[in-house]
Structures are given as C-alpha cells and as structure tokens.
Amino acid sequence: LYVLVVCRLEKLSTFLQVVIKHASIIGSEFDALTLESVLPKAFAHHIEHSMELLLESSFILCIDSNESSQTYSFQNYLIRNALYVLTPPREACKIHLRIAGYMERTFSKSLRPYYARYVYSSICILIDTIFSCHYILIFVYLYIYILFIFSLYI
C-alpha cells in the first residue's frame, strides 16, 4: 500500500511534496498557520493554493474552517504514515524543532493544552536523533522532555 502512496506522491510537484511532508511531521491533523510557520519561507507564501491542490488530489480533507485558520486532516492514516516514513530522519528532526519552536513562541502563555503535541515532537526529535547518531543532542532532548514531564505536575 505504501507503493501506491509513493506513486501518488510522485505525481505531485516538488513544491507540493515539500508541503505535504511537512504536514505529515506536524501530525494527522494540522492547521494552516502551523504549517505555514514551519515551511521554508519560499513555500509559506503559497500555502492557500497548496492546500487547494492537496484537497483536489485527495491527500487531505478540510475538517474545520474559520476566519483565522483552517484545520486539515490526512485522508487516512496510511497516507500520513507513508509520508512521515519517507522523510529522512535528519530532515524530520529539523521540522520537529521548528514545530516545537513555533508552539513555544505562539502559546508561551498557555502551553498546557499543547503539552501532548509538544512532548510528541520532543520524543520524535529524540528518536530521529538516535537514528542520526547525534548523541549529544539526545541528552539535550531528554533534558527538555524531563522538564516538560515535571512541569505537568507543578
């Protein structure tokens, strides 16, 4: 089944492939503002058009729309998982760092509702780092993870 997803992915432009891979790193559900903030600057300016094309190609669904942002979901778990696995670990690690930085900047006053996603990104960074053999970073991410766990109980 992954082969089918890869075949569909290869039909997309390089531009859309970058957008959808970043979305897969964010999670099974993602909003346009988060995606825009973690994409490279050259890609972020065309987020609305990219989302329309990905909706037309049936990779994603729009599950919520309001005046400030739209929330999307992948058509199914298999698509999201295949895209996530296709992203090289070092690239995924960098994207997770951008997601965590965005969440920290955006929600610094009220991070508690976002702890689950923040910790998820931290764990993914840790796993990706282990597979990339950056052992010094492993200790940094473990430290961050432990701080978040303790802050849940304080």
SSE diagram, text form:
Layout: H1 2-11, H2 14-26, E1 29-31, H3 32-38, H4 41-44, H5 47-56, E2 60-65, E3 70-74, H6 77-86, H7 89-106, H8 115-132, H9 135-153
Antiparallel strand pairs: 1-3, 2-3
Helix pairs in contact: 1-6, 2-5, 2-6, 7-8, 8-9
What would you say this structure looks like, in words?
The structure is a single chain. Helix 1 (2-11) crosses helix 6 (77-86) and helix 8 runs antiparallel to helix 9 (135-153). The mean pLDDT is 80. The longest helix has 19 residues, at 135-153. The protein is mainly α and 154 residues long. The chain has a three-stranded antiparallel β-sheet. The chain has helices at residues 2-11, 14-26, 32-38, 41-44, 47-56, 77-86, 89-106, 115-132, 135-153, and strands spanning 29-31, 60-65, 70-74. The termini are far apart. It has nine helices and three strands.
